[in-house]
Amino acid sequence: MENSKALRSWLDEMNLPHPLVIAGPCSAETEGQVLEIAHQLKDTDVNYYRAGIWKPRTRPGNFEGVGALGLGWLKKVKEETGLKTCTEVANATHVKLAIENDVDLLWIGARSSVSPFIMQELADALEGTDKIVLVKNPVNPDLALWLGGIERLYSKGIKKLGAIHRGFSTYEKSKYRNVPEWQLAVEFQDRFPDLPLICDPSHITGKRDMIFDVSQTALDLNFDGLMIETHTDPDNAWSDAAQQVTPKRLVQIMEDLRIRKRTETDKSYRASLENCRAQINMIDDQLINLLGKRMKVSDQIGELKKENNVAVLQSRRWNEILGNMILEGEERGLSEEFVLRMFKAIHQESINHQERIING
Ligand code: PEP
Ligand code: MN
């Protein structure tokens, strides 16, 4: 992935607007439903029309998609509305059929990107394609797995590559359907600043009321676009009913979002970030230096204790230090828990040093 600079260019090369907007139903249900939604999205900010036709469901028995039949409906969407189309692919047959039927953008779902075998099969099937390919993060918060999948595709000459952040599943209860773990998305951008990153607030929140806020956070964090599930009758959708919005609501969301100019803000953001990081590096250097100095003094104490045959651990003195430091820490906004943990670690290192001296 050393050549990641080339990857971003497809967004600009294709003259795609910022943010890129992908919208449409979770699932294609009927031809009428697919076309009705598409017509309502036609004259909006939407650039790509999504509809899942092969649906990975956690448990069997739920609606598993209309299959290849839906490809004809997506063709009609393009003919009638001019919207570009996209769908999820999960195996080599899906890829072949989607490409043959002129789907413009293929995305790989979270249940596929967890598996290196599936990612390799997809990479082989997609080799050399000029379609846009977006890789959703794997269901579990594993950055390396996500990047590994993308690397498999990149090494097959797929240039219009990007990623979709759709949150991560957790065992613990949360207000999200899939917790965003924003720090992972930030790290992702740090590692590959030129790989377009789209946010999917529908799958992150699982609830239509939370979609606006998550979309705003994503834009504030420099995401390149949004994928928002949209349905003319969300409550009666055959899948993911609670997280879909109406086309009207989508238009409102797009109107209300504060969209930051990408290039200028990026530059000043990057410059400020670089500046803060330089300061952190300097302070970390000082910290290590100081700790080293502290340990040298502690070594001298060890020598003194050895000469005078005194025990290493002097608890009264140690409790005094701790008490003082907790107070000092409080004044500087450091929690008692942190100060305790840090000083216990420092103290332990001092004891180790002194024991080595006394017994050495
Ligand atoms: C979807 O986009 O409808 C979908 C199934 O998403 P994910 O792979 O993120 O669960
Ligand atoms: Mn869905």
Give a written overview of the molecule.
This protein is an alpha/beta fold and 360 residues long. The protein has 2 domains: 4-259, TIM Barrel, CATH 3.20.20.70; 270-359, Chorismate Mutase Domain, subunit A. It is 52% helix and 10% strand. The chain has 13 helices and 8 strands. It has helices at residues 5-13, 31-41, 69-81, 92-100, 116-126, 143-154, 182-191, 201-205, 211-220, 247-256, 262-308, 315-331, 336-359; strands at 20-24, 48-50, 84-88, 105-108, 132-136, 161-165, 197-199, 225-229. The protein has an 8-stranded parallel barrel, surrounded by 6 helices. Strand 5 (132-136), helix 6 and strand 6 (161-165) form a beta-alpha-beta unit. The longest helix is centred in the last third of the chain and has 47 residues, at 262-308. The chain starts with a helix and ends with a helix. The model is unreliable at 1-6 (pLDDT under 50). Bound molecules: phosphoenolpyruvate and manganese (II) ion (MN).
Short structural summary:
With 360 residues, the chain is an alpha/beta fold. Helix content is 52%, strand content 10%. The protein has two domains: 4-259, TIM Barrel (Alpha-Beta Barrel); 270-359, Chorismate mutase (Chorismate Mutase Domain, subunit A), CATH 1.20.59.10.
Radius of gyration: 27 Å
Name the helicity range: 40-55%
Distance between the termini: 51 Å
How many distinct folded domains?
Answer: 2
Which ions and ligands are bound to the chains? phosphoenolpyruvate, manganese (II) ion
Compressed to H and E, one letter per element, the order equals: HEHEHEHEHEHEHEHHEHHHH
CATH architecture of the largest domain: Alpha-Beta Barrel
Q: Work out the helix count.
A: 13
Report the CATH superfamily of the largest domain: Aldolase class I
Q: Report the CATH C-level class of the largest domain.
A: Alpha Beta
CATH-defined topology of the largest domain: TIM Barrel
> Which structural class fits the helix and strand makeup?
alpha/beta
Overall pLDDT score: 91
